[in-house]
């Protein structure tokens, strides 16, 4: 019973983070399942089965808060489902020991870009409103879906920073669209796991409690992402991407850093992350104050012009 309660809490926290930042449900949940001895395929299958429900609830919640661009959902979700089915089917025979560090380097580069861009300058507006093309979203979805199924998580960490970096749609719509399209990915991955390993290694009680925690958290997360300013949200997302992928690289066979080195790296990143979020919050407040002053000045000018006309 204690394990089930813990899994329910993990599902709640994981979905709260995922629905707010567009990533981390699969990574968080799969990490716990692996830590208690579940094999990789069964852990990923359990998480993806739970995600069928959590992503549906999250998608509905984001839709109600107008956080979704449905064109993005279709263009990235269908290729993502194809990649997820392929990744799930071949997981038991696929080694990701080399692929994971390579992908982490790519994600880390994107994370640094998002982190610096949003912290220093706020929301990129040069491309805002321009369409995201299929030739960009389709390969992205295919890769993200494959990584998500083979690694037990990765749809958000691959898709969210790549779309955020384009600066073409607001962060809240990036997150809402990624969460909504993940329903297709979870459905396809689950089908692939049933084909690949069957259902005998899946504990459906674990699926149920992960699902319950996620469903409870979904509307809360959708509300949060609508009310967190884009500049602060970008700093938060960038920090998550950097911390997650530095951790992967330090623990990989390529580096295999000692525990004390890892601890120092995490402390430094955490310090920079907190400082960046604080700076983004200060700049956001300053921008809002300037906008208020400009609005008052514009209203005064308009009244002055009116008075000139009537006099």
TrEMBL record:
<feature type="transmembrane region" description="Helical">
    <location>
        <begin position="262"/>
        <end position="281"/>
    </location>
</feature>
<keyword id="KW-1003">Cell membrane</keyword>
<feature type="transmembrane region" description="Helical">
    <location>
        <begin position="72"/>
        <end position="92"/>
    </location>
</feature>
<feature type="transmembrane region" description="Helical">
    <location>
        <begin position="204"/>
        <end position="225"/>
    </location>
</feature>
<keyword id="KW-0812">Transmembrane</keyword>
<keyword id="KW-0472">Membrane</keyword>
<feature type="transmembrane region" description="Helical">
    <location>
        <begin position="98"/>
        <end position="116"/>
    </location>
</feature>
<comment type="similarity">
    <text>Belongs to the 4-toluene sulfonate uptake permease (TSUP) (TC 2.A.102) family.</text>
</comment>
<feature type="transmembrane region" description="Helical">
    <location>
        <begin position="232"/>
        <end position="250"/>
    </location>
</feature>
<feature type="transmembrane region" description="Helical">
    <location>
        <begin position="40"/>
        <end position="60"/>
    </location>
</feature>
<dbReference type="InterPro" id="IPR051598">
    <property type="entry name" value="TSUP/Inactive_protease-like"/>
</dbReference>
<protein>
    <recommendedName>
        <fullName>Probable membrane transporter protein</fullName>
    </recommendedName>
</protein>
<dbReference type="InterPro" id="IPR002781">
    <property type="entry name" value="TM_pro_TauE-like"/>
</dbReference>
<dbReference type="Pfam" id="PF01925">
    <property type="entry name" value="TauE"/>
</dbReference>
<keyword id="KW-1133">Transmembrane helix</keyword>
